[in-house]
Specification:
The protein is mostly helical and about 240 residues long. Helix content is about 75%, strand content about 5%. The chain has helices spanning about 1-10, 15-40, 85-90, 95-150, 155-180, 185-235, and strands at about 50-55, 65-75. The protein has a two-stranded antiparallel ribbon with strand order 1-2.
Amino acid sequence: MSQSGSSFTKIVPWSLVVLLSVFSVVGWVGWRHARKKLGECAARPSATDEILPAEDTDGDPGDGHRRSLEVRRPAMDPPADAPTTPDACLSRPDVQKEIRKQAAALAGDLSTQSVEDYKKDEQGKRLQRRQQFMENFEVASANAVNAYAREAELDEATTVKLHQRIEDGIKKQREVFAKVQSGELTEREARDQGHQLREEGRTAMVEMLGEQGSDRFFKVLGEEMRKEFMNQESGRRE
């Protein structure tokens, strides 16, 4: 059984793997509920003693007293169809129905909760990666402006203006990211807005540097981004 379960988890998507772990918990809860039902079955008495008053006149005829004697007799036997073993209790339709009902309810609750927890965890990881990317991009952009300014021999005023353009674009990207974190935007909406901001940024670069200058700047920016990610990976290994 464990071998087939292992093969199964290799081919199903993550959501079904989550459900498998859920049903393992359900099995435990279902058995716990079954034990409760078994206790109810076991609580039925098989025999009882009943105390009845009886009269005795074998004493002195002049006694005139009637004594009560305790006479014990077995009570009525339980019905022949009453369950007396755990297997018999578990075979009862009402017990099986109740176990299935409880198991299904718990499975639904746990599977839904597990999926929601997984989604939240994955969203948190994506937002964390996005945050790290923005930090890397900000550093790389500043380095790219300086590198391009030296290469193109830009004057100080143009260099400052180029820095300001980049900073404005990063600020808008961070505003979009903040809206995703607060729930004002979905991730899909944020991607659409991010794409629009990148197109606006490229247009602004062309207006400032010309077509060839813009292409060269973004090439330098790509090189600086690679350097930044390599530095980040080196820091992680250390």
